[in-house]
Specification:
It contains one helix and 32 strands. The protein is mainly beta. The N terminus is likely disordered. This is Outer membrane protein assembly factor BamB.
């Protein structure tokens, strides 16, 4: 019964976070901020667009596409998986898994990986879309699996981290963890290198596991639960981790943003922050879309805020991504926003999908890819 109630609480909390952008004790919540006017400095050019099934569906999925080489892979909530040439928008193949996809898409080493609400991981051939294997895991998979070509690492909603053989899907190891009593609905995608797999947990910890045996190499607490109620004590690391060089970045809900030494977990710097969507990094600066709708730049050297843009309060922002000299992110009305990396001012805006833009943008060189909630996948460049 405790397990059933925990998942009920998790679902309710997810709805509360979506509706308000942050927890609040006020009786009447403020509405999302209106879009501010600004002088457009950057014009985005649509190179192509393609519909991918029903997109995110009616539940709070975070089906982020994946790019491997010249191909972008995307999946919808009903199991339609598509491979698309990322330059032309031409469809290369399409596979219908007829499964409730909730964690998508991981790609690498010739594999396309998706996770389902039924607690399955399905591996497809990246060149043909042919199913290579499927594996049963302990609970629903809400984030993309990751692979280094030798092992596939998947994090499940019950906070377990599982290593599967990349060639067959057979379980190699499992890391057991007791999840927090109350959690957000979601997990971050693991990061896998040749020797280590990194994951953020609902308890506010980051762990590094040996990819061969799943044994912990180190663990570090990024956030400490505080407050009297279980709601106040939620410190999930849901937005995913970011590895740049030997620095591993993490941000938690109602906790902190931190830079860790990827080899031993030592905290290099940290700052109070609350986000459940993740972060971006570029040349010593970290960019955050906070739970209340504030966009912030943090200097890694001093852990101080360089600038803060509060104009999009309560607009349920996506994770940010660095694009050229700008920071790109979406909102609940489907707008893609560009702000300057220098001072956070608005420089561009375009609407991708009227149903919303929840998935983080993907950027490769001069191309940005945005996947709207209704399934609209759009490739954009900056108009010269």
């Amino acid at each position: 019964m405790r397990e059933v109630m925990r998942w009920k609480y998790a679902a309710l909390l997810a709805l509360a976070v979506l509706a308000t952008g942050c927890s609040s004790t006020s009786k009447k919540e403020l509405p999302p901020a209106e879009l501010p006017d600004f002088t457009e400095e950057v014009e985005l050019h649509k190179e192509w667009s393609r519909s991918v099934g029903d997109g995110q569906g009616d539940t709070f999925n975070m089906l982020v596409p994946a790019i491997d080489g010249d191909t972008i892979f995307a999946a919808d909530v009903n199991g339609e998986v598509m491979a698309i040439n990322r330059f032309s928008g031409d469809k290369l193949w399409e596979t219908d898994l007829d499964l409730p996809v909730s964690g998508a898409v991981g790609a690498g080493s010739g594999l396309v990986l998706v996770g389902t609400l039924k607690g399955e991981v399905v591996a497809l051939d990246g060149a043909t879309g042919e199913e290579k294997w499927r594996a049963k895991v302990t609970s629903e998979v809400l984030a993309p699996p990751a692979t280094n070509g030798d092992v596939v690492v998947v994090q499940t909603q019950d906070d377990r981290v599982i290593g599967l053989e990349a060639s067959t899907g057979a379980q190699r190891w499992i890391y057991e963890n007791t999840p927090a009593v109350l959690t957000l609905r979601g997990t971050g995608a693991p990061i896998v290198t040749d020797s280590l797999a990194y994951a953020g947990l609902s308890t506010g910890k980051v762990i590094a596991l040996d990819t061969q045996r799943g044994l912990p190499a180190w663990e570090q607490r990024v956030a400490v639960p505080q407050g009297r109620s279980e709601l106040d004590r939620v410190v999930d690391i849901d937005g995913g981790l970011l590895l740049s060089g030997n620095t591993l970045y993490a941000v938690s809900y109602q906790g902190r943003v931190a830079g860790l030494d990827a080899s031993n977990g030592r905290i290099i710097w940290q700052k109070e922050a609350s986000s459940n969507v993740g972060l971006a990094e570029s040349i010593g600066n970290v960019y955050l879309c906070l739970a209340n709708g504030t966009v912030e730049s943090v200097d890694e050297r001093s852990a101080s805020s360089l600038w803060s843009n509060e104009a999009l309060a309560r607009r349920q922002l996506s994770a940010p991504e660095v694009f050229s000299s700008y920071v790109a992110f979406g909102d609940f009305e489907g707008y893609l926003h560009l702000v300057s990396q220098v001072d956070g001012r608005f420089v561009g805006r375009t609407r991708i999908d009227s149903d919303g833009l929840r998935a983080r943008p993907l950027v490769v060189a001069d191309w940005l890819y945005a996947f709207g909630n209704s399934g609209e996948l759009v490739a954009l460049t900056i108009k010269k």
